[in-house]
Amino acid sequence: MGVPEGGSKPEEQRLGPVLRRRDQVQPGTTDQRLLDTEGDSEWVHTDPWRVMRIQSEFVEGFGALAELPSAISVFGSARTKPDSPEYEAGVRLGRALVEAGFAVITGGGPGAMEAANKGAREAKGISVGLGIELPFEQGLNPHVDIGVNFRYFFVRKTMFVKYAQGFVVLPGGLGTLDELFEALTLVQTRKVTSFPIVLFGTEYWKGLVDWLRDSVVAGGKASERDLLLFHVTDDVDEAVALVSKETAR
Fold first, then answer.
1. pLDDT tens digit string along 55-75?
2. How many other CB atoms sit within 10 Å of the CB of residue 229?
């Protein structure tokens, strides 16, 4: 079956679906490396092993969120102060979304995310937090009822979109912008349909909207209709009405 003890190294080796030849042939077999009690533990950091971790994160996320009712993902800065108007707006938004029949999904951290989770919990709704492993550990805020922590940003971002019917984006930084433009791209390319995106805070978002219109669209890098992919408001009730209307609630 294998190479006899003391035999020469084979020219060709099949490891499941992988074919190795010549200098790429590895010593031993996959079973041998699995069952060997000694040896290098670096294999837990290899790309094939990471694939299994990624798969497990998808499975855990799908399992935890599969039975959620209609939900809205709320994004915003982790640095929003609890005594700020933006925080209060997040609390009111979380509460109003629950009253409109939605579950509330956030990144599970402090600041604006905590505010939306707090409003959802106070309204006795479903408050979800999707956390992420970071060098500066934040942890899930105390208002999260269902929490899932992820290693990989792209798995987490998939959950935000898959289990939400729309986004409301409070003032935030680079992470918030990343999530916003991910959603805009998915809607623009029709990877998702009927997906409302509401930017909350006209003064905060004005510069971005002006740049999109005056530089991106004017320069031919996007079309005029792409500006219709999102709404901007300062009113909590209007924000909830917009996501409710476009999700046919």
1. 999 999 999 999 999 999 999
2. 17
